[in-house]
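Our platform keeps sequence and structure together, in a single record for each protein. Because each token names a local backbone shape, the row as a whole describes the fold. One such record is reproduced below, unchanged from the form in which we store it:
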Amino acid sequence: MKKSVIIVFLLLISVNLSAQINMVSKKIFLDSLNRETTPENGCYTRVITNYSQKSVRYVVTDFYKNGRKKMTGATLDRDILKKDGEFIYYYKNGAKESVVNYSEDHKSGKEINWYENQSKKSEKQNTWDPKTKKSQTLVLNFWNQDKTQTVTDGNGEYEETDGFITQKGTLKDGLKQGVWQGNDAARKISFTDNYDKGILISGTSIGENNVTLSYSSLTEKQTGKKLPKSK
């Protein structure tokens, strides 16, 4: 009889501890666009380590399906990802991809990127002004996949791929300058842009059926619609 009571007592302790552990952290499943989904449709798993505790910052870690880390850092909101502080990103094979610093969900400070073979790719400096709500990224140094440095101290030839968009051109003092050419695989367009000190001055894109669009701002370029001129 005593033995049975002890067993039941130990089982209750085990269940209680398990419940406490589950309350401390929260696991959600994300699709390829980082939207919450079901376990069957999930591409990644996100774990908020100290979810049940009231805190200024919460540790968040994303995992690939193979169990390796995809991203780790801290968020200011346990239910909405608001990056703050240092974030480390990884390739699917476990190699480090980048280290980026954030301030209230905006890139701020030094950023370092690597190729999958772990040779250095770029060094950048990000700034964010909470008063004006403006951000800026300066490319300080860049190495191509042949390990040749093509940008030094913010000057030289640079090429980048961000999602479906690939483009290349000249940098001066860390900012885009002159003619830049590229393509957007998602929208199936190619484009030629003109920059002055990092600001888009004008551009032209060519889409399917040779449809051409001229634009004078990033908003017009992204939406494909001309903005009305202010009076």
In short: The radius of gyration is 23 Å. Confidence is low (pLDDT under 50) at residues 8-13, 17-22.
